[in-house]
């Protein structure tokens, strides 16, 4: 079942696509600079189509099955979004075209900025960051710029809950901050006493995810944010879990100052096998001028006859560009389309049913799986994938066995504060039938773990390939089809 | 609207959970902030949203409506139909990051092939699974160099002929580190050669960054320069246009340590600036220091060949605050686009496209150089972009060209104080001879008026 | 689990062999078994560098985890076992012998008193489970 690589399928002299002959006189080529050999494969168009079709058959995807990956929000990716992003009027515009030729693009970006402001309660938005992690970097650099502008150089720390996603401390470190971890309490909330003790004038800010990575709403979120503000710090919201809050609560109302939004989670833009994402950043008015530019604004108001004229403005104390051009416009079109078909009521329904689905699944498997923080969850929840009376079986084995039942495993080993964690996020686009089937399988696997553990330990049995030797991959480090000499160290 | 629940299903589920209503699932949300009324437009059906967006899109003028000679980091190339046919497979675009390799071999093998193609094209030993774009890839080269020298070398020398947006992003990223200097890109001397940078390369220099072809389209042999940079103990990063590498010597061959750049020319539509593709490849000494995802080859228990994400312990989800970069996503689907594009064109096709760009650009440059008032330096070798010295402001000339259905070049006065009235013009395989002649006619008419 | 009696041990699982004023350091058998197959090793200091106690001086990576090697004592780095950068497997197979990592000329030998002896370290490992 191994599909050959394009190099193995190559045959010298094959051409996949032909181009016209030059219709201009040939210019001289600088011979000392011209490349002598180009070691690329040669395939026909049918070769290429078949090869990638075969590869596609080896993949699991949302279109083929349930994908309960916690913190990733694997909801259905609507096909209309794909059509709209491909409209020639959008797809063939160059980012540096004069603004009068791209008023359609600018209108869409402006409206999307306005929608995101309305949904989150913030006052200004940049659409530039390419992904959530880049949004976080933008946000933390804004915190840094803000304190610097006040002449405050004492603040060297960023507080991060111990349940946080790895990007939070990584972002803080690459922005020049020291990371201080805040423990969680027995209910899964940020430990308020620990926060109170740690919050002083050396703290630049707190990075908080709400609902947190346990899928739980921070029960004292307003107080947490107040404590940080009182100490002179800012609160950065990691928006990865926004799918639980649409029309339910606005992060700005809860006291957040800055947050990033993942269009590829909450707003249905597709994950693409690992990207592209899009990570707009929203801020309260006080921080608007620190945003990366350019930002779309109205240059001239419209009236009954003429639409507004849109253009760009450059924030006056900007932290600087974080990527070239304007951001992932193609993903903006998709998110805009998604919000347009939902409206306010539709978005609220998204969060209500995301939370309903998660709680339903939790109710069905609670008891068989240990739930370390057992209360009404939001859009996701975490269980332990291990039993004291089923020795030798780990969360990894449960995950691998799920694949034999045609389910993608949930997120494994995260958050770190739960041992052998399985983080399950069904999303709102799944039916009760799918959830029931998944719950039934989870219960069956728990039974197998006790009675036939080797089924789990050697799983998966029915996928195109079995468990792979990751140690060998890391040691031998073969990263190319043609192995260059001495890549292996 | 994509939530499938019926009323009776909802009621059944609430019963199993043991709560009376959906609202009761949100009691932990502070009452005064719960259920805000969002002021958004009324929802549209699919049919209505399609009409609305079609209308918005049609307000624009595109590179299909206008004859495009605009480049400056994003290029108008032909994307063969087969590329999108693959990209629209739900198995590829609705899949997640391949953390469970047993059900993700499609994605993993495609990325492995992408890594191979990029390594070959750039002449490097290994490539990662991509960064967000050319600008962030360049910034990541600086981050790699910083960590390679453990923060002991604090100077970063950057040529002024590196894309202005890339230099800006590099500075934004380096702001997170203490006491660094990013120097060398004096925009008052835009046409400085790379050799002009050498006096700045001292024992405290971590990295030198140059672009090839540079922002002005010029190409030169960097082999001797690379040697000098290495003599000072610094690393060399070369920012590339991958299409140019089908025609010209690779950075690997010339001695670069890192090759980074923008992969948009490889089968990715212009799409008003994104999503694009950040290329990042290095010599073997730096492979383990690369940020971003890496796919490696291995076998399963039965000895079947397969692919996995490897060296993941470097990444943020494990190293956390000790990771050298926070990057999580790559540009998965865009890397797939580039892989399909390069597979379709192959050795012959890619070279053919590069040559078409080269010859058409040179013809255009020669023709424009003959128009009174316009001047092009034809002496230095270039790929498919060149600088035109104009008799008036670029803005005025472009307005005139736009009235004639032409999208003119980039105004270099935006970034280089002494280059007002200088336009950066790009020519690709999409420009026919007729297009070029229309451009030249328009410029001739302009210079008469 | 191997805990040689003549060495001293840090809470972060490094071992120290004292030879006069020089501390030779490495990671313990417990550490390498927790990490399992090591796939990467990198020094974070150069000979001649001054290090302070608990400072991270090297990085170890296995497939699932990354760990820092922390200096158990302060002083000046006088020698690195460079072969470990390529032959990191030896950290798993011979953690106390061929996998010695570096030699530090101690600035304050009294810091050794804060380290555990073999018996205390063995008990500490049992407590954590292995």
Q: Any low-confidence stretches of chain A, pLDDT <50, length ≥5?
A: 483-489
Shape of chain C: globular
Tell me the β content of chain C.
25-35%
> Biggest sheet of chain A: strands side by side, in what order?
1-7-6-5-4-2-3
Q: Spans of chain C of 5+ residues with little confidence (pLDDT < 50)?
A: none
Q: CATH topology of chain C, anyone?
A: OB fold (Dihydrolipoamide Acetyltransferase, E2P)
SSE order of chain C, one letter for each helix or strand: EEEHEEEEEHEH
Family (chain C): Belongs to the GcvH family.
Function (chain C): The glycine cleavage system catalyzes the degradation of glycine. The H protein shuttles the methylamine group of glycine from the P protein to the T protein.
GO biological process, one term (chain C): protein lipoylation
Protein name (chain C): Glycine cleavage system H protein
Main attributes?
heterotrimer; A: 489 residues; alpha/beta; Aspartate Aminotransferase, domain 2; Aspartate Aminotransferase, domain 1; 7-stranded mixed sheet; globular; disordered C terminus; C: 130 residues; alpha+beta; OB fold (Dihydrolipoamide Acetyltransferase, E2P); 3-stranded antiparallel sheet; 9 strands
Protein architecture, described:
The complex is a heterotrimer of chains A (about 500), B (about 450) and C (about 130). Chain A is of the alpha/beta class. Chain A has 14 helices and twelve strands. In chain A, strands 1-7-6-5-4-2-3 form a seven-stranded mixed sheet, sandwiched between helices. In chain A, strand 4 (about 205-210), helix 9 and strand 5 (about 235-240) form a beta-alpha-beta unit. The longest helix of chain A is centred in the C-terminal third of the chain and has 37 residues, at about 330-365. The model of chain B has no long low-confidence stretch (mean pLDDT about 95). Chain C has helices spanning about 30-35, 90-95, 120-130; strands spanning about 10, 15-20, 20-25, 40-45, 50, 55-60, 65-70, 75-80, 100-105. A six-stranded antiparallel sheet of chain C has the order 1-2-3-9-8-5. Chain C has a three-stranded antiparallel sheet with strand order 4-6-7. The model of chain C has no long low-confidence stretch (mean pLDDT about 90). Chains in contact: A-B, A-C, B-C. At the A-B interface, helix 2, helix 3, helix 4, helix 5 and helix 6 of A face helix 1, helix 2, helix 3, helix 4 and helix 5 of B. Chain C: Its cofactor is (R)-lipoate. Chain C: Keywords: Lipoyl. Chain C: This is Glycine cleavage system H protein. Chain C: The glycine cleavage system catalyzes the degradation of glycine. The H protein shuttles the methylamine group of glycine from the P protein to the T protein.
């Amino acid at each position: 079942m191994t599909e050959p690589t394009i190099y193995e399928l190559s045959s010298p002299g094959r051409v996949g696509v032909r181009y016209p002959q030059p219709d201009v006189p040939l210019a001289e080529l600088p011979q000392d600079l011209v490349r002598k050999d180009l070691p690329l494969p040669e395939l026909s168009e049918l070769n290429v189509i078949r090869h990638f079709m075969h590869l596609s058959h080896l993949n699991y995807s949302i279109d083929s099955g349930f994908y309960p990956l916690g913190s990733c929000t694997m909801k259905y990716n609507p096909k209309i979004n794909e059509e709209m992003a491909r409209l020639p009027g959008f797809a063939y515009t160059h980012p540096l075209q004069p603004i009068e030729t791209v008023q359609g693009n600018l209108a869409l970006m402006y409206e999307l900025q306005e929608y995101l402001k309305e949904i989150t309660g913030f006052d200004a938005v940049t659409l530039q960051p390419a992904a959530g992690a880049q949004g976080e970097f933008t946000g933390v650099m804004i915190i840094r710029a803000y304190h610097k502008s006040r002449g405050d150089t004492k603040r060297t720390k960023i507080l991060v809950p111990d349940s946080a996603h790895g990007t939070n401390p990584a972002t803080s470190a690459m922005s020049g901050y020291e990371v201080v971890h805040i423990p969680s309490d027995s209910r899964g909330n940020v430990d308020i006493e620990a926060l109170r003790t740690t919050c002083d004038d050396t703290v630049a800010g707190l990075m908080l995810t709400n609902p947190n990575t346990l899928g739980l709403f921070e029960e004292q979120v307003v107080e947490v944010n107040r404590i940080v503000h009182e100490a002179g710090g800012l609160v950065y919201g990691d928006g990865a879990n926004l799918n639980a809050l649409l029309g339910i609560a606005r992060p700005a109302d809860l006291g957040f100052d800055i947050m990033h939004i993942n269009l590829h989670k909450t707003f249905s833009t597709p994950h693409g096998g690992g990207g592209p994402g899009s990570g707009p950043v929203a801020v309260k008015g006080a921080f608007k001028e620190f945003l990366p530019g350019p930002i779309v604004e109205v240059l001239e108001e419209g009236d009954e006859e003429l639409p507004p004229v849109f253009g760009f403005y450059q924030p006056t104390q900007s932290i600087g560009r974080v990527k070239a051009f304007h951001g992932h416009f193609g993903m903006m079109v998709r998110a805009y389309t998604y919000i347009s078909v939902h409206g306010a009521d539709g978005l609220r329904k998204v969060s209500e049913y995301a939370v309903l689905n998660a709680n339903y699944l939790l109710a069905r498997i609670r008891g068989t799986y240990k739930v370390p923080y057992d209360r009404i969850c939001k859009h996701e929840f975490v269980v332990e994938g291990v039993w004291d009376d089923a020795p030798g079986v780990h969360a990894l084995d449960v995950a691998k066995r799920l694949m034999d039942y045609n389910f993608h495993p949930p997120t494994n080993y995260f958050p770190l504060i739960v041992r052998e964690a399985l983080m399950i996020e069904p999303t709102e686009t799944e039916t009760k039938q799918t959830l029931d089937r998944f719950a039934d399988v989870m219960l069956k696997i728990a039974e197998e773990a006790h009675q036939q553990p080797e089924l789990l330990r050697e799983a998966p049995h029915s996928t195109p390939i079995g468990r792979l030797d990751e140690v060998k991959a890391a040691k031998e480090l073969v990263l190319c089809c043609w192995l260059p000499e001495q890549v292996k160290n | 609207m994509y939530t499938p629940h019926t009323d009776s299903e909802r009621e059944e589920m609430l019963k199993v959970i043991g709560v009376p209503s959906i609202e009761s699932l949100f009691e932990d949300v502070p009452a005064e902030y719960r259920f805000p009324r969002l002021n958004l437009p009324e929802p549209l059906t699919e049919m209505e949203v399609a009409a609305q967006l079609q209308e918005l899109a049609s307000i624009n003028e595109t590179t299909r409506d206008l004859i495009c000679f605009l480049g400056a980091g994003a290029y108008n190339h032909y994307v063969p139909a087969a590329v999108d046919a693959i990209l629209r497979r739900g198995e590829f675009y609705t899949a997640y990051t391949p953390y469970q390799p047993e059900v993700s071999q499609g994605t993993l093998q495609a990325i492995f092939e992408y890594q191979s193609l990029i390594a070959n094209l750039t002449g490097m030993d290994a490539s990662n699974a991509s960064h967000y774009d050319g600008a962030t890839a360049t910034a990541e080269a600086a981050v790699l160099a910083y960590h390679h020298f453990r923060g002991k070398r604090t100077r970063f020398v950057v040529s002024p002929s590196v894309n202005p947006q890339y230099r800006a992003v590099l500075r934004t990223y380096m702001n997170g580190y203490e006491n660094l200097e990013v120097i060398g890109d004096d925009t008052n001397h835009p046409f400085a050669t790379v050799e002009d940078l050498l006096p700045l390369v001292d024992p405290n220099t971590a990295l030198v960054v140059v672009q090839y072809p540079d922002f002005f389209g010029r190409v030169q042999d960097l082999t001797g320069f690379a040697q000098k940079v290495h003599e000072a103990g610094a690393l060399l990063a070369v920012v590339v246009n991958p299409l140019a590498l089908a025609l010209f010597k690779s950075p690997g061959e010339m001695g670069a340590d890192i090759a980074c750049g923008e992969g948009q020319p490889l089968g990715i539509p212009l799409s008003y600036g994104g999503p694009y593709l950040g290329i990042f490849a290095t010599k073997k000494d730096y492979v383990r220091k690369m940020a971003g995802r890496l796919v490696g080859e291995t076998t399963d228990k039965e000895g079947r060949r397969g692919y996995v994400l490897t060296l993941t312990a470097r990444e943020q989800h494990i190293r956390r605050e000790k990771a050298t970069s926070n990057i999580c996503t790559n540009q998965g689907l865009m890397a797939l686009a580039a892989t399909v594009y390069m597979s379709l064109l192959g050795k012959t096709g890619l070279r053919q496209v590069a040559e078409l760009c080269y010859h058409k650009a040179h013809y255009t440059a020669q023709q424009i150089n003959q128009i009174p008032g316009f001047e092009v330096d034809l002496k230095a070798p270039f790929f498919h972009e060149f600088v035109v010295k104009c008799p008036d402001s670029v803005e005025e000339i472009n307005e005139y060209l736009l009235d004639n259905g032409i999208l003119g070049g980039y105004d270099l006065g935006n970034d280089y104080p002494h280059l007002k009235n200088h336009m950066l013009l790009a020519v690709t395989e999409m420009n026919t001879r007729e297009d070029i002649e229309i451009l030249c006619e328009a410029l001739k008419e302009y210079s008469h008026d | 689990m191997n805990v040689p009696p003549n060495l001293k041990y840090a809470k972060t699982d490094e071992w120290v062999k004292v030879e006069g004023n020089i501390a030779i350091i490495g990671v313990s058998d417990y550490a390498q078994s927790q990490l399992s197959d090591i796939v990467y090793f990198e020094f974070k200091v150069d000979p001649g560098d001054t290090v302070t106690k608990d400072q991270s001086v090297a990085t170890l990576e296995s497939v699932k985890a990354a760990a820092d090697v922390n200096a158990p004592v302060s002083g000046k780095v006088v020698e690195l076992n460079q072969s470990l950068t390529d032959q990191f497997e030896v950290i798993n197979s011979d953690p106390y012998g061929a996998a010695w990592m570096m030699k530090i000329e101690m600035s304050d030998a009294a810091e050794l008193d804060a380290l555990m002896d073999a018996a205390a370290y063995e008990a500490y490992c049992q407590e954590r489970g292995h």
